[in-house]
Amino acid sequence: MKFRMIRFQKFSAFMNMAIDEAIMESIRSGTSLPTIRFYGWSPSAISIGFFQGLLNEVNLDACQQAGVDVVRRLTGGGAVYHDSDGEVTYSILGPVEIFPQKILDSYRVICSDILFALQLLGIQANFEPINDLTVDGKKISGNAQTRRSGVLLQHGTILYKVDVETMFSLLNVSKEKISDKLISSVKKRVTSVDSYSSAPIQDFFEAMEKGFSRDREIIYAEYTAEELSRARQLAEQKYSTNNWIGMR
Known about the structure:
11 strands; 38% helix; BirA Bifunctional Protein, domain 2; alpha/beta; eight-stranded mixed sheet
């Protein structure tokens, strides 16, 4: 199966989510190949799951003061802090029939590409059902998936470095809960590439490309003009609007 692979680029939170939807539309219409894309967030952002309540999860005042965007994803799951310099995010999109039918099996297959990439950097990680990757019992990657009108989208983050203090300042965690003890506890449950490897982030980009290239015929390409035009429309009219972000 041929896949288009798009190398790492940074976009706003709204464009990142809009690009995923635009590619889903183009795959559905048959105008684009199944796609693997790598991207970052500029500025840093928080994404919340499709079913989450905005005000329950996010400290909007703190985000505004810090210049951090907030966006709602198409996928479920919890709130995620996306550090502009602290992670690599990927999306893989294609017709549902080219992936395992069972959700757990599809997570396992796709996440095996990330495990391979980490192994290239000397990091032995494990798949923890249903959608996490861990190293020494600590979470290094979270992933989420949706299937809409015949197209599967899975995206996820792999932590290159961790800033727990900033994360807590932006999420709605009561001051009573924000303590040195809690932050220390979270640091014991979350880890990052730089805790296990001295490889520069560019090496990590290359490892991810190699991981997702296994058993696939890869064609390196860019976003089409039509996809970017549609994404800009979706970013403006949907993903950056209060109606979408604050729908719950």
